[in-house]
Give the backbone structure.
Amino acid sequence: MSERNTVMRSLHDIGLAAWFGGSLMGAVGLNKAAGNVAEEPVLASRIASAGWAAWTPVNAAAIGAHLVGGAALLGANSARVAYQSGVGASTVAKTVLTGVALAATAYSRVLGKKVELASSPDAGDQEAAAGHPVELEQAQRHLAMLQWAVPALTAGVLVLNALHGEQQRPEQQKAGMLRRATSPLAMAGGTGMAAVRRATHHGATTGHC
C-alpha cells in the first residue's frame, strides 16, 4: 500500500518558498521603495522597518512550517538517507545551509529592531535603542549585507531540495543503493542487498526529504 506525505511536503515547500520569496522581495522591493519615497534616511529606515516588522510573524510561521515539514520528511525517508549513496551527504548539506539561513534571519531581525527603534519618533523607543547591544551604524552596515545573504542561502536550500527530488527517481534510488551496498564498508558491515531491498521498498512510498 502506498504511503503519501502530501501535507508534510506542502508545509516544507510552501514554508521555504515564503521564506525565500519574502526575503528577496524585501531586499529588492521594500528597501528600495522606502528609499525612493522618503528622501530623509531616517524616514526611509522607518518605512522599511515597519514593513519588515509586519512581515516578521508571517516569516516566522513560514520557517516553522518548513522545519516541521522537513523533520517529518526526514523521518519518512530515513532508510534512503542511510542506504542510498549521496542522499546522506545532500541531507547534511541541506541541514547545515538551513541552520546558517536561520541564524542569518534571526540576526537580521535583531539588527532590524535596532534600526526600527532608532528611527522611531517615540521617545521611549529612542531610549530603548540607546540600550540596544548593537550600534546603529553597525546594524545598518550588517543589514545591507544580510538582506542579500538570506535569499541567497534559502535559494541554496531550494536547490538542494530539487536535488533531493531528483535523487528520489526510481533509477537514482536503485543506482545509489547499489553503490552503497557494494561498497567495501557496507559489505564488511554486512548490510548488503537486504538493506537495499528494505530501503528501496520504503523510499519508493515516501516524499523526498
About this structure: The mean pLDDT is 82. Residues 6-203 form one domain. The first helix runs from residue 6 to 37.
